[in-house]
Amino acid sequence: MAATSTASALPAPAAGFKALIALVGVGFAAALYRFWVGLGASTNLSDSVPWGLWVAVDVLSGVALAAGGFGITAAVYIFNMKKYKSIARPAILTAWIGYTVVVIGLVIDIGKPLAFWHPLVMWNPRSVMFEVVVCITLYSAVLALEFAPAFLERFKLTGLQKFLKLFTFPLVIAGIVLSFLHQSSLGGFFLIMPHKVPALWWSSNLPYMFYLSAIALGLAMVSFESIVSARAFKREQEMEIIQGLGRGVLITLGLYFAFKVGDLAYRGALSQVFSSGKASVFFILEMLIGVIVPIGLYAVKSIRESVNGLFLAACCVIVGTVMNRFNVNFFAQAGPNSNYFPSIVEILITIGLVSLMVLLYRLAVTYLPVFHEPGKSH
Amino acid sequence: MATNNEKAKGVLVDLTRCIGCRGCQVACKSWNERKTGKTTIEGNFTNPKQLNSDTFTRIAFIEQDNGAQPVWSFVKDQCMHCQDPACLSACPVGAFTRTPEGAVNYTFEKCIGCRYCMVACPFNIPKYEWESTNPWIRKCTFCSDRIADGKIPACIKVCPTNVMLFGNREDIMKEAEKRMKDSPGKYVNHIYGKEEAGGTSWVYLSAVPFDQLGFNTKIPAQKLPDLTWNMLGTIPAKVGALVVGLSLIAAFRNRGANNDDDSSESKQGKEK
Description:
heterodimer, A: 2 domains, globular, B: 9 helices, disordered C terminus
């Protein structure tokens, strides 16, 4: 994309850059292998576990990781919280790259990659999957337009930029609405199998739980990136912003925890928390790492005022929420005969996709005015 | 989705009549031109262990101890052909259709291979051609090609003990109830498939409790697609509410937004 541009505002960090390219290359080779030999020979997917690592991480978690895009634009443009304006562009960038990589992951995962466009012309409005595909497609377009000013600024196309500004609010609102629909619908996938998903996870409220946890995860991801980018580019940490994000994550996690416990109690499933065998172990781990520990960390003043503390809490939320998506997906399918551990090809492709995200992000923040603050020229 | 359609067919499977000859398994393979595989015996006579993309039906051999001697039950598995199929509603591209006779069929040309049908099916019926680079979802077709030709499904045709009764679904439901009434105590008091997943075209009678025969007895008696439609059906209302709500909040929070360094944006804020 912007790799051809000559001038760069920030020096490209060399450390790890080659490693990233190598990981993307290995992932690309693994994807070619998967296309060449088919899913059976390259993955550990089977009739008893048709959805594996790619669905859980590349799709379910990837989309949730990108939730910061609509979270921050909502804060800045809808709630007029101006102090977050400086991270709106990085958040939109993360989301846009996230969705691009999710779509690549989907094309690798589906059995007939060349038929990936079918849902756009063959509609089944009764299908949650159809709704998700439509929303992701539209939202990718919205994100491209929301991020376009970075390109226009870079190439000094001020006329177009002014024109696009007229649509700021409609785009932001469209982004929030589309995100609400598909973030919740990813949980909606599992509504149709109430007898398969353990009671620890299945609830008619599952879509709203996915939505809430996506917001927590999205905000955690934005603060994770802010902290890492500031370190990588030797900028000063924007304490006010990352503390504000931490508060946002804390409030969302608190709501999620109350909602989750209330829902379990309402459905009479609280007793199953400790009595569901393997599912219990995974459920407790997911709640501890993704919800309870970070709430505890944010609650301690000295931790939430330190960069390292905020970084640790954000990491917990990221790991815990990815675990949640993995758990819901796996236990929805797990029968007495189910056994699944991803194959090396599945793992390499997933690592390749994550590396691709980081690589694209680094290229973008290096060559485009992403961290450009209003008022200052870059 | 007319469930009381005059043309809707059904099959009553009376498990007490099955002798486990597996003629249906062979007939199914033969009619559908499915590959056979090398079989192995692993402490159980069920072969193959699970349905797969080349096996649309198979007899499960279930051995139970009756105190003195082993008792065998033979259970025929195949697609139940739900009246309101989860697979049909789950498929993003509408690759599944339900014929007026009640057969749930699949169109390869539409399929993208997302496998949501496999995950969504309450009975875990759709199977995948994992070894292919251009894979199909495979499952029992209710021999809808034969039905369209006025014939009965291949497995029913060859069954030597008349385990299966093919007819209008309403009629076979009446027959199931009649058999239970005529032989009190012979069957457990349940017609499997009458209400499971909102009702299926294939229904079962058994002398042994269904949960002991590998039937999933936790499947709710409701049309499963309703569970997702409850969410999808309210999307227009949610979109409307969100757009109005967000616009109002934006207008309120950005009122008199002339303190912003960006004039065109402030104007936009005021207009809202």
